[in-house]
Amino acid sequence: MPTFKAPRGTHDVLPDEHPAWARLAWIADDLARRYGYRPMTTPSFELSDVFERGIGETSDVVEKELFRLETRGGEETALRPEATAGIVRAYIEHGMRTWAQPVRLSTLGPMFRYDRPQAGRYRQFHQWNVEAIGHPGPAVDAELLELNLRFYAEAGVADVRAKVNSIGDGACRPGYLEALRDFYRRNSGRVPAGDRRRIATNPLRLLDSKEDALVALNREAPRISQFWCDACREHFSAVRVHLDALEVPYAVEERLVRGLDYYTRTAWECYRTGAEGQQDALSGGGRYDLLVAALGGQPTPGIGFAVGIERVLIALEEQRAEGGEAPEVPVPPAPLAVIVGAGAQDTVSRLRLARDLRAAGLAVHAELAPRKLARQLEGAARDGAHFAVIVGDEVAAGNVVVRDLEAGSQRTVALVDLARFLERGEARHRHGAGSRPERPPSMPAPS
Ligand code: HAM
Questions:
Q1: Please, what is the Cα angle at 436 between 435 and 438, to 5 degrees?
Q2: pLDDT at position 202
Q3: Which atom of ligand 1 is nearest to the CA of 61?
Q4: Cα–Cα distances in Å, from 18 out to 27, 187, 418, 447?
Q5: Cα–Cα distance for residue pair 386/199, rounded to 1 Å
Q6: Which pLDDT does position 428 carry in this prediction?
Q7: CA of 126 to the centre of ligand 1 (A)
Q8: Is 162 helix (H, G, I), strand (E, B) or coil?
């Protein structure tokens, strides 16, 4: 047993798993570029107030799942459980209101929720988060939901559908909440004892519950659509016109209310057909027209979504296990060449030559163990390298021997020509290319 293990609810992404991970990050980044959502990064922690005021003090995410950091210098901070509140804080702080509206933003990074870890639910997980701030919709609502589903199409996750609802706004939701409270009070005997306080504090959380007793009761609960004001009704029907025109696969789900309190009007979650449990939402999003003002800015509408990267990886694995089509994961490219040495001890020459080739832009390994040439060559073949560059006595005359490990031939090459010679070999054999994702310039390495 190792002395230390990764903390509960966290996981290491090992090198063999990384390509599948990086592929999704690449697709997210490329889609953001095509749709005009500019990448940005906010801190992994914020003042706790940002989450309390933004997400809502009585949401599970704040009440139970916030990783609060030890207070130093009087600042109460917490690890971010989601990205939207921090991005809205940045929108206000950096005066993005004066930029062309809506401001379209995208971010990918780790989020932290102190939840009970289980399959698909982690304490540290990653989200691709997309926001459009400064436009009341409804067209932008459809642009975002279409983008959200486009991600699954390009990632190769089959049969994903969105459940969509409108959860009303400041004008009509209070009436709905009152009706819900009345309903739960009348049926309080059927509300689990531990949840009863929520009748007063946050009845939407009861409606959102996956507990069997509440699921049954919720079938009889009043429906939000009966309470929509004219503006919300019109907004939702215009969103649907746009979604239909874009042929977005969705179904209206009137019980969908989302777990964060900042939502108004359009809200959605995406699921694979047949996998619709609590841990199965691949993404969630919606409109938050009151959030900018709640965090101290001028009233400004906003909307966005976040995809759970780990959940998408799980969905792809399940799809593969079920025998369905699953995308090929890029194989990490083998090195073009391994630099080996005739002198078992001469690691200096190997490392120096590797440095020069790497500086010329080539992917080469250097064999750094002081071992016999034959063993070094075996290692180079095991690495899957195309060439072994042998640093021997010829180096005094400015030459090295290059062995083509695939063709089984070898020749002497002048050091001044070596980079070009290897490059030509790379172009001929497209070593590992094709499967190698071209990283768009805006994409940071996934953390
Ligand atoms: P959310 O529904 O809380 O929304 O999270 C979005 C997605 O993150 C979920 O659908 C799920 O795939 C993933 N996720 C959430 N919690 C966990 C967890 N503990 N372990 C693994 N994956 C998880 C938001 O976070 C909103 N900020 C989305 C948004 C952006 N709304 C507007 N803009």
A1: 130
A2: 87
A3: 3
A4: 14, 50, 31, 10
A5: 67
A6: 66
A7: 9
A8: strand
Give me the pLDDT at residue 208, please.
83
> What pLDDT is attached to residue 166?
97
Q: So what's the pLDDT on residue 261?
A: 87
**Stretches in the chain below the pLDDT threshold 50:** 431-447
Are 88 and 291 in contact by the 8 Å Cβ rule? The answer is yes
CA angle 27, 136, 286 (to 5 degrees): 50
Write the DSSP string, 293-345.
HHTTS----EEEEEEEHHHHHHHHHHHHHTT---PPPPPPPPPSEEEEESSTT
d(CA 61, CA 159): 29
Whether the CB-CB separation of 305 and 284 falls below 8 Å is answered with yes
Q: Which atom of ligand 1 is nearest to the CA of 120?
A: 21
Q: 20 C-alpha vs ligand 1 centroid, how far in Å?
A: 20
Contacts of 232 (CB under 8 A, 6+ apart): 166, 168, 169, 171, 172, 265
Distance 236 CA to ligand 1 centre (A): 23
Distance CA 194, CA 367 (A): 63
pLDDT attached to residue 43: 98
Q: Which residues pair with 127 in a beta bridge?
A: 109, 308
Q: Is 84 in the pocket of ligand 1 (CB under 6 A)?
A: yes
pLDDT of 429 reads 58
Task: State whether the beta carbon of 203 lies less than 6 angstroms from ligand 1.
Answer: no
E-state strands within 4-71: 38-39, 45-47
Residue bearing the CA closest to ligand 1, atom 33? 304
Other CB atoms within 10 A of residue 250 CB: 19
Whole-number Å distance between alpha carbons of 389 and 366: 9
pLDDT at 63: 86
The values of phi and psi at residue 167, to 5°, are -105, 25
Ligand 1 atom, smallest distance to 309 CA: 12
**DSSP state, residue 125:** E
Our answer on whether the CB atom of 137 is closer than 6 Å to any ligand 1 atom is no
pLDDT in tens, 175-220: 999 999 999 999 999 999 988 998 998 898 898 887 888 999 999 9
Instruction: Tell which atom from ligand 1 comes closest to the C-alpha of 65.
Output: 19
pLDDT given at position 366: 96
Measured CA to CA, the distance from residue 291 to residue 169 in angstroms comes to 12
